[in-house]
Amino acid sequence: MTELDELAARARAWMADDPDETSRAELARVLDGLPGTAADLADRFSGPLTFGTAGLRGPLRAGPNGMNLAVVTQAAAGLVGWLGQRGASGPLVIGYDARHGSLSFAERTARVATGAGREAILLPRPLPTPVLAYAVRKLGAAAGVMVTASHNPPQDNGYKVYLGASLGGAVGAGAQIVPPADAEISAAIAAVGRLSTVPLGDLGVVLDDDIVESYVENAARVVDPDGPRDLAVAYTPLHGVGAQVLAAAFARAGFARPHEVAEQAEPDPLFPTVAFPNPEEPGAIDRVIELATVTGADIAIANDPDADRCAVAIPGPQGWRMLRGDEVGVLLADHLQRRGVAGRYATTIVSSSLLSKLCERRGVPYGATLTGFKWIVRAGEDLAFGYEEALGYCVAPDLVRDKDGITAALLVAELAAGLKASLRTIGDRLDEIAAEFGVYATDQLSVRVDQLSEIDTAMTYIRTKTPGSLLDDAVIAVEDLAPANDVLILRTESARVVVRPSGTEPKLKAYLEVVEPVVDGDVAAARERAAASVRALRTETAAALGIW
């Protein structure tokens, strides 16, 4: 038997156990196209879709290396079995977004759970990921599943797992899984036998909108009920599921309804007006900035499709600009500290180091973690606020132990309205922080690759040819977190570079930071010097990675 014959036999065996007629027909077409479709078939069977700390995420297609009903059935059976082995009590709560396949994947997960004798609770409709994270805590669940690919391209979907208090503990209740749970669940998934033997029950309990109302009511409490509310906001959910919940939260908090980008307001799994449904991608928020200009808005806000991230744009002398995640993170931390919110303020090793200086000067507990909210929310039981530079903010850890683009938008609105009432702007507050601490300029070099081996090559290159200087300053520290984590950190007296592969996309990322002191109160001049230094650091980092 040839290698192609063996591959075709594997595909036919998979088809025989695949519960989805559409997927079976899809694989049949690929088999009928052999040998011309050999590469496609080989990719679909190159291995199972990897279950890690981000759960599952991949292209919607038939076969073990894709998101489909068979893979979801196996994942759900493994997860439910693992919960049983660990003696976790409580229901499995399941949420889903509006992507292709999300509803059917959510319903199949519920039926696998009830078939195994565990109560399943489905959210009532496509909703933001923060609502699912809230529901896990609110309903005392053993675990939660959110079917979403967040800001990935339209052809993808995903499967995120959250733990309840019984397995997550005080800091992990309602948070995403971390090792060793991911490896244990992955092993349980691999141990699932033929899918035809997995028992299926009913859908369990389908909630009404009371759970959404509960989330909205509590989300509105993140802002001071007596604060200013005069603020005009332009908003887009980027074809995702955030619009209704955000509008309800703004109304409950006393803000005027934001102006919405009409052509992006309703959920659309094709994301037709953007190249990538990610606010960080070039051009993604152009339409909301256009709307902000036309309506005379004070700020513009964008959520990603599952509304766990929040992008902010502000007007300035050179027109509108989107704030970096580090800028918003420090603004929100500063705002909460000024409000007297006590506790630990945390971010990741790739985010700006400005938050650490802010906390140090004000005597506030600080935490630095590995990349990802699963780590940020575990920075301590006293966590008051956490953020990551990729537009993720946890402003109310007792409400949602994860990033939450709805409550973050509310807090941004409170900050902007308060500044407006005193005839100032968010730009003014950023200048005040810079005048006190210096300019902390950050940027990111992000390289999308066709083959993951390209990332390994670049990481090997910089490790073997580590530069001795950056921006003509000596590299005074090199921290290599391998093998536990594929991260390399280079530091000079006034600059830092952190290099790592992306955990969710085929990208190599380098996080850049330059610190520039403000001389004689001239913040603008310091920003110009910092911007020039970051551009130069970007070029040097690319060369150090061997990619340019």
What are the SSEs and their pairings?
Blueprint: H1 3-17, H2 21-32, H3 38-44, E1 56-59, H4 69-85, E2 92-96, H5 102-115, E3 120-122, H6 129-138, E4 143-147, E5 156-163, H7 165-172, E6 175-176, H8 181-190, E7 205-206, H9 210-219, E8 233-236, H10 243-253, E9 259-260, H11 286-295, E10 299-303, E11 310-314, E12 321-322, H12 325-338, E13 344-348, H13 354-362, E14 366-369, H14 373-376, E15 383-388, E16 392-394, H15 405-421, H16 426-437, E17 439-448, H17 453-464, E18 469-470, E19 473-474, E20 477-480, E21 488-491, E22 495-501, E23 507-516, H18 523-544
Helix pairs in contact: 1-2, 4-5, 4-8, 9-10, 10-15, 12-15
Write structural notes for this entry:
Belongs to the phosphohexose mutase family. InterPro entries: A-D-PHexomutase_a/b/a-I, A-D-PHexomutase_a/b/a-I/II/III, A-D-PHexomutase_a/b/a-II, A-D-PHexomutase_a/b/a-III, A-D-PHexomutase_C, A-D-PHexomutase_C_sf, A-D-PHexomutase_CS, Alpha-D-phosphohexomutase_SF. Keywords: Isomerase, Magnesium, Metal-binding, Phosphoprotein. The protein starts with a helix and ends with a helix. The radius of gyration is 24 Å and the shape is globular. With 548 residues, it is of the alpha/beta class.
Question: What structural category do the secondary elements indicate?
Answer: alpha/beta
Compute the CA-based radius of gyration.
Answer: 24 Å
pLDDT below 50 for ≥5 consecutive residues: which ranges?
A: none
Distance between the termini: 45 Å
Strand content of the residues, in percent? 15-25%
Broad shape: globular
The averaged pLDDT comes out at 96
Q: What is the number of helical segments per DSSP (H or I, 4+ residues)?
A: 18
What proportion of the residues is helical, as a percent range?
25-40%
Largest sheet: 7 strands, mixed
- Counting DSSP E segments of at least 2 residues, the number of strands comes to 23
